[in-house]
Amino acid sequence: MRGIVFPGDRTVEVRQLPDPTPGPRDVVVEIRASGMCGTDLKLYHGDADLRAAGILGTVVAGHEPCGVVVEVGSDVRDEEARIGQRVMVHHYLGCGVCASCRSGWTQMCERRPVLAYGYTADGGHADLMVVGATTLVPLPDELSFVAGAAVSCGTGTAWGALRRLKITGDETVAVFGQGPVGLSATLLASALGARVIALDVSASRLERARDFGAAFTIDPSATDVVSAVREITRGRGADASVDASGSPIARRQAVQSVRPWGRTAFVGEGGDVVFDVSSDLLRRQVQLHGVWTFSSVEQEACATFVAERGIDLDALFTDRWSLEDAGVAYAAFEQQTGGKGVFVH
User: Fold this and answer.
1) How far is the C-alpha of 294 from the C-alpha of 71, rounded, in Å?
2) Residue boundaries of the structural domains of the chain
3) Could you please report the per-residue DSSP string of 216-282?
């Protein structure tokens, strides 16, 4: 089979690898779609920590896999997986017995180091992928494989943030950053009935946000964000906000833009943020949530919501690639000027 590997220093290799063999509690998935995520760029760049950990050049990339089960291990029960089943993968594998794992939060496993597909174990940028049977999440028949790939990370993360914020249809939500995760938050919040204010410095991304349901758009480089949000909300502030940008400035503005008793979720990875804890947070009774991905239960709930509402997740993807195009695909993806990319088979 073919698999994409990152040796580091912005290099990509498409290697011929042995077909995987499932262990007793594993399955083999024939990959039909594998999404590209901003986290992949850490491997693509290949920093010193990843090199020291022995990850670079050894692990097949891709943690947004979606496909069809083609082989099952000897101890896998029929209710867990069957040949021909359309599936997504919750891309973490823990002990399976601790409280976190039993609740679907295997990335928070309390007993052993977590296996992360596409990072510490071979991922979905390949023809075939072997995964633990417990990581499988059913893909509704109404959804395409590329839609399933979106739910498997970026869109699922946006859904997790909105669920943590308990968004309702009579609320206004400000979404900072309109990359794939932020755009998913705009799309899903709109589908939930909320009024969305989308923020980004890119005119093309703001245009896409309007197409995906944003009622208002703001370019933070051209105006005072907090004042603009308050003007839209008649001086009150947004009911909730999501930062999907990871920008220190945007994070502060996300907190400051919500009303008293408002809620904010930080989704964007890395970096830091500075704000006045008393005036911005405590004395306005603002709730601040840190959101990291989603549980397998939420992944299935997100897919079900998208299927039942007829939401067009395929439209998130602006670029579809074959595995052989991996070098060109990641060189383009690094520029972060387009939408979401996906490898399709």
Assistant:
1) 27
2) 2-153+294-344, 158-290
3) EEE-TTTS-HHHHHHHHTTTS-EEEEEE-S--HHHHHHHHHTEEEEEEEEE-S-SS-----IIIIIG
Question: What amino acid occupies position 305?
Answer: F
DSSP calls for 13-26? EEEE-PPP---TTE
- In eight-state DSSP terms, residue 175 is E
User: What single DSSP character describes residue 60?
Assistant: B
Per-residue pLDDT of the chain (345 residues; tens, 9 = 90+): 999 999 988 999 999 999 999 999 999 999 999 999 988 988 999 876 777 677 788 899 999 999 999 999 999 999 999 999 999 999 999 999 999 999 999 999 999 899 999 999 999 999 999 999 999 999 999 999 999 999 999 999 999 999 999 999 999 999 999 999 999 999 999 999 999 999 999 999 999 999 999 999 999 999 999 999 999 999 999 999 999 999 999 999 999 999 999 999 999 988 999 999 999 999 999 999 999 999 999 999 999 999 999 999 999 999 999 999 999 999 999 887 778 999 999
Question: Is 319 in contact with 339 (CB distance < 8 Å)?
Answer: yes
Are 344 and 320 spatial neighbours (Cβ–Cβ below 8 Å)?
A: yes
Determine contact, residues 112/100, Cβ cutoff 8 Å.
no
d(CA 123, CA 132) in angstroms, rounded, equals 12
6 vs 104: CA distance, rounded Å: 29
Residue 61 and residue 125 in contact, taking contact as beta carbons nearer than 8 Å: yes
Whole-model pTM: value is 0.95
Highest CATH level, class, for 2-153+294-344: alpha beta
Non-local CB neighbours of 182 within 8 Å, separated by 6+ positions = 158, 175, 176, 198, 200, 242, 244, 245
Exposed (0-12), middle (13-18) or buried (19+): which is 59, by Cβ within 10 Å?
Answer: buried
- Asked if the 158-290 domain carries CATH number 3.40.50.720, the reply is yes
Contact 241, 233 (CB under 8 A): no
